[in-house]
Amino acid sequence: MKEINFKKDIPKNKVIEKCDEVSKMMKSLSHPVRLKILCQITSSDKTVCELAEFCEVSQSAMSQFLGRMREEGIIDSQKKSTAVYYKICNTKVLKLMKSIHKIYC
Description:
The chain is built from 5 helices and 3 strands, in the order H-H-E-H-H-E-E-H. The protein has helices at 12-29, 32-43, 48-55, 59-71, 91-104; strands at 46-47, 75-80, 83-88. A 3-stranded antiparallel β-sheet has the order 1-3-2. The longest helix is centred in the N-terminal third of the chain and has 18 residues, at 12-29. It is elongated, with a radius of gyration of 16 Å.
């Protein structure tokens, strides 16, 4: 396994700040349905109906998941014709999801 080299001279306050940021993001991603949503929209935008069907939840439950993730700045939506499509708008989350996919899928 390749060894990861961490910088040793990172100021303590910066480490604490980044750990808080990462912890908050990981908490948001820790729910299985939110993780499934992100897996689906990593490669292409999806509608509420497509996501609800894939995750096997109601459309209203899916809307609640999507609303929370939008408020947290993880995803964004775009209306095309009569449908609303969701995509990841946070570049750090997108990179993380691609890494998760590479490791686990």
